[in-house]
Amino acid sequence: MDLSIGEVAQRSGLSVHALRFYEREGLFANPVRRLSNGRRVYHEEDLEWLAICTRLRSSGMSLADIRQYIQLARQGPGNEHERLALLRRHQDHVEAQVRELQGTLEVMRAKVRIYETHLARGEADRLWNPSHRATTTPRPCPAPEAEEAS
Amino acid sequence: MDLSIGEVAQRSGLSVHALRFYEREGLFANPVRRLSNGRRVYHEEDLEWLAICTRLRSSGMSLADIRQYIQLARQGPGNEHERLALLRRHQDHVEAQVRELQGTLEVMRAKVRIYETHLARGEADRLWNPSHRATTTPRPCPAPEAEEAS
DNA sequence: CTAGGTCCTAGAGTCGGGTCTAGATCAACA
DNA sequence: TGTTGATCTAGACCCGACTCTAGGACCTAG
Fold this sequence. Notes:
The structure is a homodimer.
Chain A lengths: L4 H8 L3 H9 L8 E2 L5 E2 L2 H15 L4 H13 L4 H41 L9 H5 L16
Antiparallel strand pairs in A: 1-2
Helix pairs in contact in A: 4-5
The first copy, chain A, binds a DNA duplex through helix 2.
């Protein structure tokens, strides 16, 4: 039932260094317990929290914000509105990211399609080519968007 | 038609520092031209490229990868397969990000809903509360997932 | 003429988020 | 018994991506 730092590292995907670092940074729900010899002991709940934690991180929440959230939770009841606000703020943030990424995806898919069709037709040399154009226009290098012109 | 670094900064949303930095890092399609007095001159195409560039950045492409892409393009025809591979790699990456973020969104929406309904019912004190539980269980602080238990 | 604003370069500093090192302790195995 | 291997602490270090500073040039308006 008790887990060593090494086991937690393996199962969480974080390094032991990162786990100690997170602890110093106050990112754990509970103060991490120690064995009599000073070694850390973790439990399943810590893994569950770490899973959430890494989700929050990978969706762009800063360690500072995660710390704030967990600190509120540690303080107990009375600040649920604050916690909710924090969650909502991050949710909005993530939704904005998704929209932005989807916009980027459209741009990229268009570019990829252009490359594909040109390569398929062996017309690759009509893609953006700075040095070629340098001989025919005053300004050597047209914008990369020229790729999409043909 | 010619743009100063200040104008480009305004219109691209990047700082003048960042623009000079990007230039040093080889992220421009063209070597940036200079006036006789040494000042940089930019053109519309640069803005268009910078727009793409910031899309790539904000979708997580590193400056190193952007540099590689623009360098390939500068070299002219013959490496279209490489460019395409680079684009596809990043596209996959972005798609993975979107999936990950959508997973996170589901988790967050669930959490937010729980807070909302509990706050609405005035039952907030049944949410995760470390100090409270500390008095009733050997291990003081259950996982934050306990929030979802009620 | 001078004051303010924009620009230049080289290089130092910052910040977030880890990562790594040194030197020590401890448990288990051959 | 001694060597491995996991752990501990404090603190140095790293990396990417900027950001800022110092010291100087230049331009334009008042």
